[in-house]
Amino acid sequence: MGILSKSIYCLSFIFGYLFFVRIQEIKSRLITYSVERQLKEKGKNLTISYPFLLSGAKYISIGDNVVIGSNSRISAVTVYENKTFTPLIKIGNNVVINRGFQIAALSQIDIKDNVLIAENVYISDLTHGSSDYEDIETPPAKRNLSSKGQILIEENVWLGRNVSVLPNVIIGRNSIIGANSVVTHDIPPYSIAVGSPARVIKKIKSK
């Protein structure tokens, strides 16, 4: 064990686990304050856990009582390969987002109130190029960005762990998307959908 490793090991005895938890809380509070100042619109009681990545903040609106877990990334893409875009990301009130969340908008992504998002969920309205032969011969990172349509996630939706939501999709209110699903088309309100691509397996009905 090297000198640095030994020093860190000794510090763990001196300060203890709760000390380092507190340090993490301070980092999270600092990054929350920093993000709030940059947003297009911000509500009350935003909580962001460190680490967190943000780009295109002036095109992003976040409502009241929103929680965003650690290792998340929110990107409103404004410039790519010398082309400019005017995206919009809107996150409503009382939205809970767990760790590892990624969202990228070239057009518009709208997440309504009271949505629950599990770990490692990916939401994006953009694609790199097309499936044409000419594009396939171009490295993916160099292909033109485009959007096939906006994404709307309505009120009270629950997205399970590792869900992906792709462009031009509406997920209706009070719906549940099962873990590991890929949403490629509209999901009606009051539905439970699973699979890749996601399909409705149950309609939620009142008794």
What does this structure look like?
This protein is α/β, with parallel strands linked by helices and 207 residues long. The chain has an eight-stranded mixed β-sheet with strand order 2-5-10-13-18-21-23-24. The chain has a six-stranded parallel β-sheet with strand order 1-4-9-12-17-20, with no helix packed on it. The termini are far apart.
DSSP, total strands:
24
What is the CATH superfamily classification? Hexapeptide repeat proteins
With strands numbered from the N-terminus, the spatial order across the biggest sheet is: 2-5-10-13-18-21-23-24
Regions with little confidence, pLDDT below 50 for 5+ residues: none
CATH topology: UDP N-Acetylglucosamine Acyltransferase, domain 1
Largest sheet: 8 strands, mixed
Range of strand content: 25-35%
**Level-1 CATH class name:** Mainly Beta
Category by helix and strand content: alpha/beta
Radius of gyration: 20 Å
Shape: globular
Total helices: the number is: 3
CATH architecture: 3 Solenoid
How confident overall, as mean pLDDT? 91
Strand/helix succession: HHEEEEEEEEEEEEEEEHEEEEEEEEE
How many domain modules? Answer: 1
Alpha-carbon distance between the two ends = 64 Å
Helix percent reads: 10-25%
